[in-house]
Amino acid sequence: MEEGVVYSPYPDIDYPDNLSFYHYTKRWMLRHSDGIAIIDGERRVTFDAALKGIQRYADGYRSQGLKTGDRVCVHLSNSAEAMMACYGVIAAGGAVVLAKPTLTRGELLYILRTSRASFIVLDAIHAEKVRSISDEVSLKGKFSLGPADGFFPVANFQSVETSLFKPCAISETKSATAVLTYTSGTTGLPKATDISHYALISAMEVMRCLKLFEDKDVLLAWNPITHISGFVFYISSLCYGTLSVVGSNRMPVEGFISTVNAHKVTSMCAFPTAFQKLLVQLESLQVKLPSLKKVFIAGAVATEALIRKALKVFELDSFQNGYGMSEAGGFLAMTPPGQLTREATVGFVAPSCKCKVIDVVTGRAVPAGTDGEILFQGPPLFTRYDGEPQATSSAFDKDSFFRTGDLGSYDSEGRFYVKDRIKDMIKCLDNQIAPAEVENLLLSHAEVAEAVVVGVPHEDYGEAPTAMVVLKEPRHSSPDQVAEELKELVQSQLTEYKHLHGGVIFIEAIPKTDSGKCLRRELRQRALKVSGLCVADGGPY
């Protein structure tokens, strides 16, 4: 730590700034050429075959009109073919636009329009979705994995001769786009983050340095390849000699168990919400999976309750809580490898990165143990929000540190703790409240399964803290009784401005993104409709 800046305790990495994504991955994949890289059902793909598959897709795309800099929307589920189709886009000189297969027609249309994608590659099952919006977007080409009317079948790429492959020259690796991935859109419309070749390689190098991948590991491909965590994890596993077994975070628990046992899976990366659901199912079945030793959390920070549950269900050697975001292409901080993290820390700053925490009002750096906005600087960070210069400019401070928008702190040893989103802070009676503090207290109640606290505009309080609560089943108390107990619980342990002045609203489920982030905007709107509060702007009572 020096003048309010926290540096990484890990050795610096000499990030390669003269290599394109393709040249970097080829160099690493050739080291493991004869080994098995991917298992997809009955299919086995060697590292050499995977590299040739990437080359085949690259030339195939180019034969259908793809030019350097063109953007290709990837709308695929996890598979060996999807991996080669994804990474082949970048090898061809194009840029991947990640679009999860769970997107609705309208959500996909938004991404195609705002990213200005020229091509799309998808699973045949999603062809009708694209046909229904074909008049609203202009696409030069449409590719499908599997037969689909009006789409070019990528099976035709099988005849491409890879020995003639010539990689696209990328001279400006720090500015050339490799991937466009969209922010969660929890506080506004999703923005496209531009990840360069250099930033993508840097994100992979961070994973290598933190020993997420070793050639003895067997990684379950659980997170979607169309989420930045899956996208970077699977190409990293291909580079560093790790066997990937294709799976999905939507696979039934029985499929998860059989896959892990059949292939002696040692490692997995997971979103907290999907992982929590999996843990509950495994615990109820009293299943032990002795081969699974390493878990990495991405997409959102794991709570202490989730960590305790994971350590109870699995016989782990390593549980790593990571801190990353769409703007980073990977992790900006992580707990050390080979350790069982037991608290909700995201560990230390990633190699060659640095961080500071600033007062949300004055903008001055704050000391250890003081909450403020977390800012990062380092090679894995994005270049810009595509097409949004104003948002890009406001995302960085005068020293080119990225403003994460997250509230947190660091301790005297440099460990970081993420508390909340700055935009989620509630201002009640002229005091700032971090919702997580109240939420954690509510979760201690025996009847509460999930709880989110939002601020509802109020002429007396400014914003009235309002609890949106999902009850456990079966219920042992009436909702009215639980509501009173929750209000009394908060009143007994927290100061007045943190009390539930907006009351308690019971709901069936908390709306979330695929990565488990709560959609607080939706909850605020719902709270406004049903709270019965007097709203200062003359809105509903």
From TrEMBL:
Protein name (record): Putative acyl-coa synthetase
Phylogenetic placement of the source organism: Eukaryota, Metazoa, Ecdysozoa, Arthropoda, Chelicerata
Domain AMP-dependent synthetase/ligase: from-to ranges: 27-385
InterPro entries per record: AMP-bd_C (IPR025110), AMP-bd_C_sf (IPR045851), AMP-binding_CS (IPR020845), AMP-dep_synth/lig_dom (IPR000873), ANL_N_sf (IPR042099)
PANTHER family named in the record: BCDNA.GH02901, LONG-CHAIN-FATTY-ACID--COA LIGASE
Residue ranges of domain AMP-binding enzyme C-terminal in the record: 437-517
Subcellular localization: Peroxisome
Keyword Ribosomal protein: no
The species this protein was found in: Ornithodoros turicata
Family: Belongs to the ATP-dependent AMP-binding enzyme family.
